[in-house]
Specification:
Length: 303
């Protein structure tokens, strides 16, 4: 039994000791954390003490990394230039290439020369000419997506009204259609010392859009209702009135991690309906015919 244990230890321990950590040297601040996370998973059992040097840069929206791999024997490969559109693509590509280069170095014999009976390592020449240019193509745009939308808007003008927005969007290539529900804080109007009226609006908006990169343009069609109620007035009652509006929307979107996005929007609408609330035959509130607003929304992709 003791011999069997000793035999297992004799086989396992030297094999575990053959592994050596990967020395990572990154120059530049572009995608530093993503590169270190990906390179930390590269297998290094096949080569002694490999060192990976990466020089990162960003130019005209493209992310670049120059990769050089060396071992303790002086063998080196690179630099190899990797270019990608996102940090995730750049880091994963650099890690794959580093693993391939390390495997190539492990299979390459160490060049030596004999000098007065001694074996002297003859390192490869210090040539920093470019070996390869590897360009990672950007990910193709999604042909179809379904996204959840949640955000808030604020009117532009003296009467600032804030509304909350919840909805969904279906997009195919550069075209999309969205359905959003809006509801906000009511307008409060004091009529007498104790009497006041409250006017609230809720809407459902359909928005077919055309997208060109991060910019989008939409046509808006809104259908909703006004709710007017009174408090502290004689003979008070609650009334409802329909609303119908059309307009345009300009959007800018930015996506993070391919699932979470942020949208900034500018809306302009004209109302086909008008409403007026009266107290004792005196108008105390009247709806606007034109409305402009800005908004910020979060997008979450499900497909």
């Amino acid at each position: 039994m003791l011999r069997a244990i000793a035999l297992v230890l004799a086989i396992v321990v030297p094999h575990a000791a053959a592994a050596s950590p990967l020395a990572i040297e990154i120059t530049g601040t572009t995608c530093d954390s993503a590169l270190r996370a990906e390179l930390a998973d590269v297998e290094t059992n096949s080569i002694a003490g490999p060192r990976v040097r990466v020089v990162t840069s960003a130019d005209a929206g493209a992310l670049r990394a120059e990769l050089i791999v060396e071992d303790r024997e002086g063998r080196r490969r690179g630099p190899r230039l990797v270019q990608a559109a996102t940090c995730e693509d750049l880091a994963s590509s650099v890690a794959v290439i580093a693993a391939m280069v390390i495997e190539d170095l492990a299979s390459t014999p160490v060049p030596t020369r004999s000098f007065e009976g001694q074996h002297v390592v003859d390192p490869e020449p210090d040539d920093l000419s470019l070996d390869y240019l590897i360009e990672v193509p950007p990910r193709p745009p999604r042909s179809r997506e379904i996204a959840f939308v949640a955000g808030a808007t604020s009117d532009i003008g003296p009467d600032t009204r804030r509304r909350f927005v919840v909805g969904a969007r279906l997009r195919r290539a550069s075209l999309s259609v969205g359905i959003e529900g809006q509801a906000g804080t009511p307008d409060e109007i004091a009529v007498t010392m104790r009497g006041r009226i409250s006017v609230a609006r809720a809407e459902l908006t359909a928005s077919p859009c055309l997208h060109l990169g991060s910019i989008g343009g939409c046509w808006l069609t809104s259908l909703g209702a006004l709710r007017g109620s009174a408090a502290g007035l004689y003979g008070m009652r609650t009334v409802f009135a329909p609303t119908l509006a059309g307009g345009l929307r300009l959007t800018w979107e930015r996506w993070y991690r391919d699932r979470i996005g942020v949208r900034i929007q500018l809306d302009g609408r004209a109302f086909a309906t008008s409403s007026r609330f009266r107290v004792d035959n005196m108008p105390v509130w009247e709806s606007q015919r034109f409305e402009a607003s800005t908004g910020l929304a979060m997008l979450v992709r499900f497909l």
